[in-house]
Design a protein that fits this description.
single chain; alpha/beta; 11 helices; binds acetyl coenzyme *A
Length: about 350
């Protein structure tokens, strides 16, 4: 069983916050932030809710896919910063789209979109779903300590989404002639898709952590820490570079191709210096690595679908192109996927 991506979408809050604006209340500078991270500005929610962003990104993906929300068999949302601890963010998306299919969240931090894609792939493979909306939405601004210059400058808010469909369903819709033409033009379009998926967890909670709600239980005997993000930046840096390189090499090997054969590399957008180090270690053409973080910052699991959407809408993804997705982050989780764009 295979799936293909029918359409993508993304949404960002209206408010852009520049590095200079952060310098007004933090002991930092545009020069420090930009040279160490590649970030110039990030989008931050003011009046928007995360539900708003998740729904907008989903609507755009559904429109691009030319499907109706009632035709969805499943909605999987990746988030660790949802508007509700319960119900799942996916339920809010389903309600506002007018969909009535099963809807639930996965919590995989920055690897979450690829983990959600894998869940969707499993539903399709078991014949439980044919069309799935996979959405990632994060409001990092609500879990940051805005007095901590070493973390709050790195993140932003946003959402990205993709509608995926069982490959045989798309072929049936397109008809046998279109399917044959596509197969001829791109050689291996009939091969299983994705070509490879790879997941690992190197358990380490303290490296990148946001504690849960403290609550007000009268029985709690130990104080609970505040829900603010903490991070060992240097550990994350080393982990990120290794995660990208190991995943890309493993997936190329699984698919029997060279790393240089991959047309588009969509990595989690943590930090420009992580991307640069990975590009150097892999010896790849840096222009094939998508960058969005300059004007979005790190949006955790929403980075990958947002970058994919920008590529798709810029017309840069052609039928038959090989696309590698690598998410990595808190966990420490890695989720990677090599797929052929159809
Ligand atoms: N502005 C000015 N100075 C700062 C800032 C800031 N925003 N942040 C930290 N500093 C200072 C520190 O206080 C420290 O000062 P000191 O030497 O007087 O103590 C100095 O800069 C060096 O601090 P380091 O933390 O060692 O800075 P480093 O050069 O390692 O850069 C960074 C920090 C950019 C976070 C780096 O560790 C990094 O790239 N890590 C990767 C982690 C990352 O990108 N995480 C993103 C989220 S995680 C994820 O998505 C998976």
């Amino acid at each position: 069983m295979s799936f293909q991506i029918l359409g993508t979408g993304s949404a960002l809050p209206a408010r852009s916050v520049t590095n200079d604006e952060l310098s007004a209340f933090l002991d930092t500078s545009d020069e420090w932030i930009f040279t160490r991270t590649g970030i110039k500005s990030r989008r931050v929610c003011t009046t928007e809710t995360l539900d708003d962003l998740a729904v907008e990104a989903s609507r755009r993906a559904i429109e691009a896919a030319e499907v109706d929300p009632t035709e969805l068999d499943l909605i999987v949302c990746s988030t660790t910063t949802g508007d509700h601890l319960l119900p799942a963010e996916a339920c809010a998306v389903a309600e506002r789209l007018g969909a009535s299919c099963p809807a639930f969240d996965v919590s995989g931090a920055c690897a979450g979109f690829v983990l959600a894609l894998d869940v969707a792939d499993g539903y399709i493979a078991r014949g439980r779903a044919r069309r799935v909306l996979v959405v990632a939405a994060e409001q990092m601004s609500r879990v940051l300590d805005w007095t901590d210059r070493s973390t709050c400058v790195l993140f932003g808010d946003g959402a990205g989404a993709a509608v995926i469909e069982a490959a045989d369903a798309a072929e049936a819709t397109a008809g046998p002639e279109a399917t044959a033409a596509a197969a001829n033009s791109a050689g291996s379009l009939s091969a299983p898709n994705p070509l490879s998926m790879r997941f690992t967890t190197g358990p380490s909670v303290a490296v990148l952590n946001v504690p849960g709600l403290a609550g007000t239980s009268p029985f709690a005997e130990a104080p609970r820490p505040a829900s603010a993000l903490s991070m060992d930046g240097r550990r994350v840096f080393r982990f990120g570079v290794a995660a990208i390189c190991d995943a890309v090499e493993a997936m190329a090997s699984d698919a029997g191709i060279a790393v240089a054969d991959i047309d588009h590399l969509v990595f989690h957008q943590a930090n420009e210096r992580i991307l640069a180090a990975a590009i150097k270690r892999l010896g790849i053409d840096g222009s094939r690595v998508v960058r969005t973080l300059r004007d979005t910052g790190n949006i955790s699991s929403a980075c990958i679908p947002l970058a994919l959407d920008r590529l798709a809408r810029a017309g840069e993804l052609k039928g038959g192109d090989l696309v590698a997705l690598v998410g990595f982050g808190a966990g420490l989780d890695i989720g990677a996927c090599l797929l052929r764009w159809k």
